[in-house]
Amino acid sequence: MKAVVFYEHGGLEKLVTGEVPTPRLSNDEVLVRVKACALNHLDILVREGIPGLAVPLPHISGSDVAGAVTQIRSDTKDLRVGDRVIINPALSCGKCEFCVVGEESMCVNFRILGEHVNGGYAEFVKAPRENIIPIPDHIPAVEAAAVPLVFMTAWRMLVTRAKVRAGEDVLILGAGGGVSTAAIQIAKLRGARVFVTSSSDEKLRKAEELGADAFINHSETDFDKEVWALTGKRGVDVVVDSVGSATWERSIRSLSRGGRLVTCGAHTGAQATTDLRYVYWRQLQIIGSTMANPRELKQVLEEVWKGRLRPVVDKVLPLERAREAQGAMMKGEHFGKIVLKVD
User: How far is 312 from 337, CA to CA, in rounded Å?
Assistant: First the structure.
């Protein structure tokens, strides 16, 4: 099969298009013919090399896949060859103390499609049967591929972990990212007032189209000071920060008393400084969150399928231009998801 692979870690030049063996199925696995695969910042981190993570090489990235079932090695009766599907990219063991109570994203053997195992930058990809999810006929493959990882992540962050309530103020950093575009919509669905930051006025305008209420260009002002001004020196109830060290201190300073900072990533660095006086004096909560469990994914998919939440696609490129696609993501000029289309 055709795939975009890298044989060693490094820059964009390490991504090459070539022929590799089609995946062979084990018991309870399904082979999916890939129609579209959305990019995530994770793809860049894996290609560059994550300290402490040994990725078997050569490796195929891509966590967000939409396609059609081509082979089933399972006793399932509710899935047929030809069915249009997406793949839940969260892989868990189903047996550990966390999995048995329904917290699969905390699995002691947790893995992610496209990170720990080969993903969707290819004509075919395999996944466990329980990770295969049918999609409605009215949802195009490109839009479906833009949903799983970012929407499940944002849903767990805001609904399960931060418990956003109607009437609260939520600050979402980096308005153009995939998780951010999902988080804006989910926060509005929960009845919150949404503040967003970006260095681009154009992205702030697009965030307004998604429902955001207040806009901060962080290239022109310190966003924590602007939040303080916009809220009458109160601060916001929740900050969604996947940026990392570059924004961490200001995120904490943006919080109201009893506020919650929820994080799912550290794109600008994992080592951040925390002024503990803010944490204990304002009685803040710092909350970590990773992906979601199947129940949470089902909940957010229902909202997407019904049209109450919508995937945001910035551009679509053919699989062979994966290097260009990752390069565009690294520049940070996109708003929403970049998707590879596989012919």
Answer: 6
